[in-house]
Batch of 2 targets.
Target 1
Amino acid sequence: MRLSKESEEFIANLRLYLMTSGKKDSEIKEIAEELRAHLEEAESRGKNLDSVTGGSPEAYMKNVSSEMITDFYGLIKFMPMFILLLIAYFITGSAIRGELSFSLLKLAAFPLIGVASIAAYIVTFRKMAVKKWSKKKEFIIFISIQLITVGLMSAVLLLDIFYFEPFYIPSREVMWIIAALGVLIFIIGAIWSKTWITVILPLFLFGPDFVMSFMDIDEMTALYVSMGTFVGGFVLFMLYLLIQNKKQNPRYS
């Protein structure tokens, strides 16, 4: 039996809510299948979603989540890869450009910004699951988080230039080694996450820097090219997310 669009959307939102609540994938799948069976039975009798959720989908999600055990080990085991990917995103581009340096400000601020950004996305996904936001609102929120993250990182870089002295500047050879390690982390991340987006996005972000490192062009042109490819890569990334959501969530159909 084919469920109504509302019921399909609710199942997708419940999965998203439980996933961002740190529940086990196997249990989420089991809960989703049980819910689908209940909804199919209810709709076959002419009833709607409210007959299963009690008229409050948000309360139903929270109640289901409270009855499940949080998989803290599952959350912890993913952290090393997230941290490695975060570090790789921060340093690979600078290493390719030959501008990599380490200061106390960068070491303290960049991890905090990264953690705050991840937390903002998790909170947003949880809100999306229980609130019926429009696609436009969701897109604006995601763009805003990205712009705030980039803005904070830019502010740190400016403060670092004017007020902080680096305590370590690698040689050019070491920078190439660091860049190679960053690329390796992106590839491992793609295999781990079973998606090539962790390779495609860095390719747009850092690929032009790699090419321009072998070309004799002025800094302003290099800056324009880097910014252009960054925007292009980000737009493609957002389109990728929208396409994936459209495939997995009927609300985007």
Target 2
Amino acid sequence: MNSKRNNLLAVPYYLWIVLFVFAPLALLLYQSFFDIQGNFTLNNYVNFFTSRNYLQMTASSFWYAFLVTLVTFVFAYPMAYFLTQTKYKRLWLMLIILPTWINLLLKTYAFIGLLGQTGPINEWLTSMGIGPVQLLFTDASFLLVAAYIELPFMMLPIFNSIDEIPSSLMEASKDLGATQLETVRRVVFPLSMRGIRSGVQAVFIPSLSLFMLTRLIGGNRVITLGTAVEQHFLVTQNWGMGSTIGVILMISMVLVMFLTRDRKDKGALINE
């Protein structure tokens, strides 16, 4: 009786999944087999894998996604570790997560104001005699803004994984003569791998399809597959090719999730 009741309660959830997950994916896959005239074709996939431009965009997408993930990890891991050692860690965590509540477009335009030729950073550089510097529309500005936006999504799972490590393990490491750095390297880091994998998934996968930041911050100097999808759907109206790139992006994301899936690591805590 309870199982039937649970199944009935799950019906809205199943409908939501079918309508807003599987149906759009099926529509994307279906549309990818049609050209701009609406004729059935496989040329979209042939063009993608034989075009130098598309292959370069694919490599660029993975490269920039890797760089954004690396930068966020370098900053997020020390922040997460030291945050777990503070007294009011939940308060500090809330303050770090708070910017995620702000609309992405608003944050992007805020950085445009900060990094612009007449922005406060360039005004300060001018007052120092360095002069106005081209900060916007560079790879560095794109990585800075993308890493800032993605940072909470990397830090939160790492923070949770470190916070769950029993303090007795760290105390035992120190009692055995290990320094704080050795404790982090040999105890904390291996036991937090589950959080690191979740953080990598949460940052790398969305970074593959960035398009708004590449346009507004990168000034189209940073070209990714997400930019190509936007162009095909909104400019060239070649929905078939845009859908093809979308399908390839989805397959790439599934591959990334598979490669970073949860495994039974040696030395990790397995609660089963």
